[in-house]
């Protein structure tokens, strides 16, 4: 059982210089990780994911705010008193110990009884499909197997909380997808609160109950995968979550409550919003058609990228590039004039100054 609560947590590295505040690596982080939830910290390199995880772990001091586990402040508690297990990107295995000893090591340190250790090591090895390599040293294992040993070591501890820092990023694409599915199954079986750092939005979407999207040390949104995908709180979240990336452009108020893309026939119904807004449309929610007789096209096809099940059709509309994902190989070629059909599309509007989501009436 473990619920983790962050209240106004911040971290600055180094001392403040005279007349300047110390640079903040993260600031103003407040959210609750519910017991048993799998929560991803998602964002680009340098946004403060590892810093946040390390503060939860107790590997870094916090510079402000509070961290509570099950309602109890832990900011002064040593890492080994917090009942959590860490899985790193680089595995951090002991090279001179066998796989068995690597998994057992933490349990021996905690003076767990010998037959209980044996039971837990074998159970963890079975779950991760490494029972046949228990006697070998890490150096004779593949990268994927080493990562499984690191996972098995964490599982054998039976901690209240699992902390993961980009655990799959050293694996090749196929193994990464496979291990990701296994992690999901493992989480369902073990049910322990998990905090998972990644810059891969697909990993965050597929694994998580909640996603904390971060940018430049700040929380952009804390929500379910459904919420961050369908109701992004900021333009940053809109552009970071979803593949292919959301189309985002600046639109100006035209006639009859429509905002139009300057210099084009392309516009959206957007009600009583500011004069100028940022508009977002997902490529997979737009459709293409050929213009009717006398109808002005919205844009011209400049490239088609077939992916097999879908194709990405790149358009130019005035000075703006726009992407539409169509089923199969599609029927459009470079130079075709097209109309973008928004019947299925959700409209996302953002304040051009603050980047915050605007309610569309
Ligand atoms: N020990 C340190 N001393 C000074 N600055 C640091 C230290 N560790 C991290 N930082 C800074 O804090 C910020 C956040 O770093 P952090 O490692 O948390 O990012 P991250 O989101 O994990 O990035 P990545 O995806 O590259 O691992 C960065 O600007 C980084 O340069
Ligand atoms: Mg990191």
TrEMBL record:
Signal peptide: none annotated. GO terms for molecular function: ATP binding. It holds the Pfam family TOBE_2. It comes from the Bacteria. Coiled coil: none annotated. The keyword Secreted does not apply. Keywords: ATP-binding, Cell membrane, Membrane, Nucleotide-binding, Translocase, Transport. PANTHER family: MALTODEXTRIN IMPORT ATP-BINDING PROTEIN MSMX, TREHALOSE IMPORT ATP-BINDING PROTEIN SUGC. This is ABC transporter ATP-binding protein. It comes from Microbacterium sufflavum.
């Amino acid at each position: 059982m473990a619920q983790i609560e962050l209240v106004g947590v911040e971290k600055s590295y180094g001392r403040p210089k005279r007349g300047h505040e110390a640079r903040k690596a993260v600031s103003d982080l407040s959210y609750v990780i519910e017991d048993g939830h799998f929560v991803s910290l998602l964002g680009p390199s340098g946004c403060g994911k590892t810093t946040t995880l390390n503060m939860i772990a107790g590997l870094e001091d916090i510079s402000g705010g509070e961290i509570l586990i099950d309602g109890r402040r832990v900011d002064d508690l040593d890492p080994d008193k917090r009942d959590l297990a860490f899985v790193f990107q680089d595995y951090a295995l002991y090279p001179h110990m066998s796989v068995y000893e690597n998994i057992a090591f933490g349990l021996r340190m905690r003076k767990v009884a010998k037959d209980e250790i044996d039971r837990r090591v074998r159970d963890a090895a079975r779950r991760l499909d490494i029972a046949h390599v228990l006697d070998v040293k890490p150096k004779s294992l593949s990268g994927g197997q080493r990562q499984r040993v690191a996972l098995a070591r964490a599982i054998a501890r039976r901690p209240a909380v699992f902390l993961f820092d980009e655990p799959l990023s050293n694996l090749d694409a196929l193994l990464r997808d496979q291990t990701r599915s296994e992690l999901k199954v493992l989480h369902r079986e073990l049910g322990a609160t998990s905090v998972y750092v990644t810059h891969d939005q697909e990993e965050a979407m597929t694994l998580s109950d909640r996603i904390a999207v971060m940018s430049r040390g700040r929380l952009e949104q804390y929500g379910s995968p459904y919420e961050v995908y369908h109701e992004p709180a900021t333009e940053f979240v809109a552009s970071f979550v979803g593949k292919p990336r959301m189309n985002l452009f600046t639109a100006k108020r035209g006639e009859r409550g429509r905002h139009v893309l300057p210099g084009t026939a392309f516009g959206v119904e957007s009600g009583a919003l500011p004069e100028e807004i940022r508009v977002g449309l997902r490529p997979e929610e737009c459709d293409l058609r050929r213009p009717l007789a006398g109808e002005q096209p919205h844009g011209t096809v400049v490239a088609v990228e077939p992916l097999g099940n879908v194709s990405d059709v790149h358009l130019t509309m005035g000075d703006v590039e726009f992407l539409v994902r169509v089923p199969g190989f599609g029927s459009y070629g470079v130079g075709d004039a097209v109309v973008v059909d928004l019947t299925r599309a959700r409209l996302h509007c953002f304040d051009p100054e603050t980047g915050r989501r605007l309610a569309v009436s």
